[in-house]
Amino acid sequence: MKNTINNSNTNLILLHPFIQKQGNPNRLWLIALISVSALASLMTVIYTRELFHTTTTTRIATTVDHQQQRLPKSVMKALVHYAANANSTDHMSQTDIEQVTDVLKQCTSPCNFLVFGLTRETLLWNALNHYGRTVFIDENRYHAAYMEEKHPEIEAYDVQYTTKISELNELVTSVREQAHNECRPVQNLLFSDCKIGLNDLPNQLYELDWDVILVDGPRGYWPEGPGSISAIFTAAVLARSKKGGNHKTHVFVHNYMREVERVSSEEFLCKENLIKSKKDLLAHFVVERVAEESGGNQFCHNHPTATS
User: Is the pTM of this model over 0.85?
Assistant: First the structure.
């Protein structure tokens, strides 16, 4: 404190020490309230986003699940096709279809299914093996192209057959003579010159391990027709030459009652591999894989005698 004294007047000057002013308690409460409110708002935003994400994910999953429950387009097309052709007589019997279907149902997915012949059952076979690969081989390139254009889900290839039904016995004899060389049971047919072997298919088809093979073509109702001897021989070699997958291949031969189908099947697929022959229309063979180093040059243990 400093004192100043004047003669006429006395003025008193007091110097007080500075004292810091304390904060208002109401102000502190206001700040705390704002902070809590902001935190609550932030938590609400986070929760809302999580709820939206969960709801959206659930809706997407539900939509996908519903889509998976729908019939595949190939199945729908097959059903429509057969409904429209219910009165047709040019088709495989229900009993024969069920035999092939039973094997396809037991086939490990993805199942490799090779079909010789484009027939009325084409869409059905493709639909039944929806989750596998089904390949069709036909002698008519125009029909194969037409089917692929009309049904893009179909995989079809054309092949040139050089055999004739009238030459059946000569062809069988020729294969027997070349069984240790060009017509051996285990080989890659892509590099084969066997007269009845199909070596002009797409390269990739020779590398596939076929689980099921159906021979329902080519046509064979007249002496100059190609018949199915090449298809049956090729099926027999493909089954024995598998590198992986199931060591057994199911081979079906339709129209087994006809001479060329019966003789060719007994020669290359073998009676000891015959599982069932229903009403002589559809024959079911199970052919096992054979190691190439085994050196076997015979298709069957006991060769049948070719017809004369």
Answer: no
